[in-house]
Structure formats: structure tokens, C-alpha cells
């Protein structure tokens, strides 16, 4: 979830600057952390390309995150290829604010048992905090 928080922090910075975020693929490999925007003609096409890469692990990564957004919601899909964990889907409603982004309560739609949620959210916050420019525009959970 730290990787998800880091990617969310990057996306929040972009959204707060008025940029359109279609999809971002973030992943950890033996060589380090990488991030790439998924470019496409439409947000739906970017999401589909990102999901195909995530499902196939075309990045040859240990873990990966796909973040995609519309005007009111951020979705974050996670995969852990090395630990055999269940894929997770985190949904965060948001709205732009004068000083940054206001996020609603995050909800796990799949892949997190109730007893795991608090730990996952702490890890998500550590990831957010790891990228200060994005963290500065996000509220703490």
C-alpha cells in the first residue's frame, strides 16, 4: 500500500495543478521504483491498457499499482506478484479545493479483510508522505 500512496501523492499533485490524470502505472522492480503515465485517446482506453499491463505483469515487477481517475473518484488497483496476496481495489472520492484536494473516506472494494484495513491505510499514508509535493495538497487519513 505504500506504493499506492506514493502514486496517489503524485496524482494529487497533478490534479491540484489542473492536469487530467487518465491512468498511472507504478511498480517496484529489483532495480527500483518506476512510474509511467498511460497515454491513450480516452480515459477508458488508458484504464484498459493499464489493466492489461497490471494483469500480465509486463513490467516484470514485484508489486504494481494502477491508479485511474475521473472528475470525482480515484481508483487504485494493487497487485503483489511476489507475495501471492489478493489483488486489492481502493476507491477514494475527491473534490478539488482551493488549497489542494479533499479526499473522502477511502473504501476497499476488494482484497482487504476488515482487520487489515487500518494497517493498509497507515501504509497508504506513509506512501503519500514519501512524496512531499503531493502530500502537501492531500489531507491526512
List the helices and strands and how they pair.
Elements: H1 2-16, E1 23-29, E2 32-37, H2 43-56, E3 63-69, E4 73-80, E5 88-97, E6 100-103, E7 107-110, H3 117-129, H4 132-135
Explain what you see.
This protein is α+β, with helices and mostly antiparallel strands. It is 33% helix and 33% strand. It contains 4 helices and 7 strands, in the order H-E-E-H-E-E-E-E-E-H-H. It has helices spanning 2-16, 43-56, 117-129, 132-135; strands spanning 23-29, 32-37, 63-69, 73-80, 88-97, 100-103, 107-110. Strands 1, 2, 3, 4, 5, 6 and 7 form a 7-stranded antiparallel sheet that branches. Strand 4 and strand 5 (88-97) form a beta hairpin. Helix 1 crosses helix 3. The model has no long low-confidence stretch (mean pLDDT 87).
> Using DSSP, what is the number of strands?
7
Percentage beta strand? 25-35%
- The class by helix and strand makeup works out as alpha+beta
Written as H for each helix and E for each strand, in order along the chain, the element string is HEEHEEEEEHH
Detail the poorly predicted runs: none
Terminal Cα span: 14 Å
Mean pLDDT: 87
Radius of gyration: 14 Å
Largest sheet: 7 strands, antiparallel
Q: Compute the number of helices.
A: 4
Short description:
The chain is α+β, with helices and mostly antiparallel strands.
Protein traits:
single chain; alpha+beta
